[in-house]
Amino acid sequence: MTEYRPLRIALLGAGSVGAQVARLLTENKSELAARVGAELDLVGIAVRDLNSKRAEGVPAELLTTDAETLILGADIVIEVMGGIEPARTYILQALNSGSDVITANKALLATHGTELFDTAEQVGAQLYFEAAVAGAIPIIRPLRESLAGDKVNRIMGIVNGTTNFILDRMDTTGATFADALAEATELGYAEADPTADIEAFDAAQKAAILANLAFHTEVPLDQVYREGITKVSAEQMAAAKRDGYVIKLLAIAERVDADENGEAGVSVRVHPALIERDHPLGAVHGAFNAVFVEAEAAGSLMFYGAGAGGVQTASAVLGDLVSAAKRHVAGGPGLADSVHANLAILPIDRAYTRYQITLEVTDQPGILAKIANVFADHGVSIETVEQSVRQNGGKRRSTATLEVGTHVATDASLSSVVKALAANAAVESITSVIRVEGI
Ligand code: NDP
Ligand code: HSE
């Protein structure tokens, strides 16, 4: 039997995640006590509305609207309320009163992480956040601990389940973006206001958190390049499939060496991209998440699983709770994060990538050479060109569709090529521009 005094656990929130945390804490009480070496006593659950209907397993007698009093009496506080305020204030109160805190709140960490981590360090408390990125998938602890002795060069992840579901439906059924979004809403993946997911705000927050850990560098959210999936068309999806690719919303954080354009640093970006279908990330279907990590000594690692869901996310919260509770029992310092590397965060211009550009041109002698010159003028090397020609309704003039794939170049050079093509008299229209990743 355990000897350490019972630890008082305060839960802030009893929604999708909180209700499952409460249920598992209650159902698995004796097993958790045996693992930790102390009883984990859920002493209260703060909610907004005491009369709301609760999921099965939430002990009604523990509900309260007085979060502040609950926090003051706790050893460990679990914040699964979401939002910025009052979550930020409550976490600061908990840390300042000496409690360790567990949070699933990526929006808060991506915007106020520095303040929260600095406070935790000053008072010698711990802030755990495994659930904040990719739900049930253990990715924070591997970056924070398992890979702490290695050098991470690149992280490429599918970290938003809603957008992966939408893109996967477009890929597998030929649906338009609007139809796939409607299906995601009907099935409960997308929220009534889907902006945070489809405009990639959620993925950008997660990218900032991952990059911060991987590169020991503070990554302000406004320096994460962000492009959502609303402009991905059924035609782009079909063309990608024909060419052996699939379109995914990728969160990419990578080191960029110093070059003629400037100093070394870190590039963090979220945007739709073509990825080969046989790349490990190409096989991530439905609302699943996956994070592909490239480290100098470890090589390539892939973390895959459920990126959301109440009970799945509760698993990550409880993992953090066991760690925090064990630290209480064993004593001693916990993990301290650091941003000692303090690398420069580079703009999207400095990222190295490849583009696939689809354009309509008048099919005349010399046009292909003119198009090729635009790429050459900007120092961009062409890797592939595919041409198809269609007659314009019996007229002598016909239109050619060119699909041009580039070699790797800076995003600045590649976007200059697109601007120059748009202004070139030989080009009738540019129908698709998309980055290619994973090579
Ligand atoms: P929900 O909206 O389902 O639940 C939020 C809970 O917090 C509710 O019980 C609500 O009370 C309570 N709450 C909100 N504001 C206050 C307040 N001011 N005072 C007291 N209680 C309050 O959220 P989720 O469970 O879905 O998400 C929680 C967190 O977990 C978020 O940060 C989210 O980003 C993160 N997360 C969620 C995932 C998921 O799959 N759901 C996946 C990964 C992370 P009441 O019920 O009375 O309204
Ligand atoms: N809305 C998120 C997603 C889940 O679709 O992945 C919580 O991070």
Automatic annotation (TrEMBL):
Which terms are listed as keywords in the entry? Amino-acid biosynthesis, Methionine biosynthesis, Oxidoreductase, Threonine biosynthesis
The Gene Ontology biological process terms listed for this entry are: methionine biosynthetic process; threonine biosynthetic process
Q: Read off the SUPFAM superfamilies from this record.
A: ACT-like (SSF55021), Glyceraldehyde-3-phosphate dehydrogenase-like, C-terminal domain (SSF55347), NAD(P)-binding Rossmann-fold domains (SSF51735)
Q: Does the keyword Hydrolase feature in the UniProt annotation?
A: no
State the protein's name: Homoserine dehydrogenase
Q: Which organism is it from?
A: freshwater metagenome
Q: Which family does it belong to?
A: Belongs to the homoserine dehydrogenase family.
In alphabetical order, the GO MF annotations are: homoserine dehydrogenase activity; NADP binding
Please state the Enzyme Commission number of this protein. Answer: 1.1.1.3
Question: To which pathway does this protein belong?
Answer: Amino-acid biosynthesis; L-methionine biosynthesis via de novo pathway; L-homoserine from L-aspartate: step 3/3; Amino-acid biosynthesis; L-threonine biosynthesis; L-threonine from L-aspartate: step 3/5
ACT domain segment(s): 356-435
Q: Which InterPro entries match?
A: ACT-like_dom_sf, ACT_dom, Asp/hSer_DH_NAD-bd, HDH, HDH_cat, NAD(P)-bd_dom_sf
Q: What class of enzyme is it?
A: oxidoreductase
